[in-house]
Amino acid sequence: MSRLPPLPLNAWLRWDVVSRLLPVDGVTKVLEIGCGQGSFAARLAQRFEYLGLEPDAASYARAAARLVAAGGRGEVRTSEFSALDPGETFDLVCAFEVLEHLEDDKGALIEWVERVRPGGWLMLSTPAFNERMGPFDLVVGHYRRYDPPVMERLLADAGLVDVRVVVYGMPLGYALEAARNVVGKRRLAKAATSTMEDRTSGSGRVMQPDKRALGVAFQAASAPFRLIQRAFPTRGTGLVALGRLPG
After folding, report:
1. Mean pLDDT score across all residues of the chain
2. What is the phi/psi pair of residue 241, to 5°?
3. In this predicted model, what pLDDT tens digit does every residue of 161-219 receive, in sequence order?
4. pLDDT in tens, 13-54
5. For residue 65, with 0-12 CB atoms within 10 Å meaning exposed, 13-18 middle and 19 or more buried, which class applies?
6. What is the mean pLDDT of residues 147-155?
7. SS3 per-residue string spanning the chain
């Protein structure tokens, strides 16, 4: 575990849900769309044959280095989703904190599902509950947040079955979100002069821990909250969704 990159507190809460929902049977090839700085990439590559896509050059460089340092099976490419080989499919397609950055989320989901093999899975995470849109969402380029029933309907409309949505972050996520919104208020004026694309490209680098000691501290501090949130799968500030393409 020491080779794995550090996670911020909220990502520890998210990873707790992702790691428990990850399908294992029949899953070998995994694609992650928008892998950011590679914190989840390094962990997924320990379990699967991994491919990550990250168009932001700075985030790609960090993710690629982290993947090498952590070992495992996989690679990261600095390319868009459209650069994949035609017809290539995967057992599991992931997109963590990506969908909310896309204006045409329905169109993106259809494209992503086309890369899932029959019988395979799509997993994603997003901020939860659109009524909680705040300054930080605007600063990092979020078009929306997702209520669980909306997410369930989106995945079903994209052709997925056995859809499951788990909300996470109760109670720590609320405090973390409040702190992010304080930062967001300070940055709103500057963000107003940038495009949504610019905000999105840098979002994966915001509030990411660099020091391993800090990562260890965050892991320890989040441990009790990772257990507490499991008792509240419908309350919190983020969600993880999983759906299967009929085989």
Report:
1. 93
2. -125, 145
3. 999 999 999 999 999 999 999 999 988 877 777 887 777 766 666 667 777 788 899 99
4. 999 999 999 998 899 999 999 999 999 999 999 999 999 999
5. middle
6. 98
7. CCCCCCCCHHHHHHHHHHHHHCCCCCCCEEEEECCCCCHHHHHHCCCCEEEEECCCHHHHHHHHHHHHHHCCEEEEECCCHHHCCCCCCEEEEEEECCHHHCCCHHHHHHHHHCCEEEEEEEEEEEEECHHHCCHHHHHCCCCCCECHHHHHHHHHHCCCEEEEEEEEECCHHHHHHHHHHHHHHHHHHHHCCCCHHHHHHHHCCCCCCCCHHHHHHHHHHHHHHHHHHHHCCCCEEEEEEEEECCC
pTM equals: 0.93
Cβ neighbours for 228, distance < 8 A, ≥ 6 positions apart: 170, 171, 172
Residue 103 clears pLDDT 60, i.e. is over it: yes
**Distance between CA 67 and CA 60 in Å, rounded?**
10
Beta bridge partners of 166: 240
Rounded CA gap, 110 and 183, in Å? Answer: 34
Residue found under tokens 């990506």:
98
Question: Which stretch of 100-104, 196-200, 232-236 has the lowest confidence by average pLDDT?
Answer: 196-200
- The amino acid that residue 55 corresponds to is P
- Tokens of residue 171, six digits: 């109670």
Residues in Cβ contact with 136 at an 8 Å cutoff, skipping those fewer than 6 apart:
177, 180, 181, 183, 184
Residues 239 and 151: beta-carbon distance below 8 Å: yes
